Protein: Dehydrogenase
Amino acid sequence: MSSLNVAVAGVGALGRHHARILAGLDGVNLVAVADRDRKAAGRIAEEHGCRAVADVREILDEVDAVSVATPTFTHADVAGACLAAGKHLLVEKPLSSDVREAEQIALKARTAGVVLAVGHVERFNPAFEEVLARCSRPRYARFERLSPFAFRSVDVGAVHDLMIHDLELARCLFSGEEVVAVQALGTSILTDREDAVTARLTFEGGGVADLTANRVNPTAARTVQAFGERGVVAADLTTRRVLHYSATPALTHGPPVLSALDDPSADRAALRDSVFGRWIKTEEIPVSGRDALTAELADWTSCCRTGGTPRVDGPTAVAALELAEWVLEEIAASAKRAAAPVRKAA
Structure:
């Protein structure tokens, strides 16, 4: 099979890694990188033995597929040009900051008969895959995504910058169930957009997910906890440590836990320290060391060759954006309610 000829549009914080990985994938030929910063494009091109251009349109007739890692506000324009030329696409998340634009990109890809993948890389995180395998459709889930302020992605707020990852993961974890209610609060800290957000999603099956995103935090954290019938699965998506908490036979078949207090001489401190072990089993789950971005790009390039469906395709990304828009609407509504004068009781 001949090599898949690809280009990368945008070689900033993410695009340079796309170029590095694509240059090393079997069966992939990195033809060029494109960036308005010609010096940056030149450096990356020299590292990987490809061409550097200022605009990806210059080399569309030489490639089969394009990875778009330009700023979000340019996605519709860059993706539109690539799709008009019939090229397969991977577009970094979010697909757009506007749902209508995202729908148009997805529609154009479907009409052109090309593959459209969207860079929700956490779907390829082995730690999340372990959570999904052990607790699909939980009763409750909690997501936390915290980051120091990075002085990038300032064309969007924390919902499209950070929370969009977990909105997509939550839809996946709850097996694509419809969200029937959203509550959200947000505040700006360093920018004129929301920098810190908390949201609650209620799914049609009764499950609930709480999400927190803060891009002005002293430290970074990416965690998920899923509470299901077989216990709780807790994952650190950064360190890839996954723990499974489940009931021991002493909890499921023994006397009630609080009966331990029937003995007047019971040592409460010792009982406290014995909870995890005596009544709750803790199991650390082995997790693959596979690189998530490499897996995402390999999945995309494979789909480009075979016509398969990427793990996160256009409609899936649009659904996440619709949730993001709902969260933003609720943030605006809650701010309006908070600003309204309080009526005193007569």
About this structure: The domain at 123-292 is CATH 3.30.360.10 (Dihydrodipicolinate Reductase; domain 2). The first strand starts at residue 4 and ends at 9. The mean pLDDT is 95.
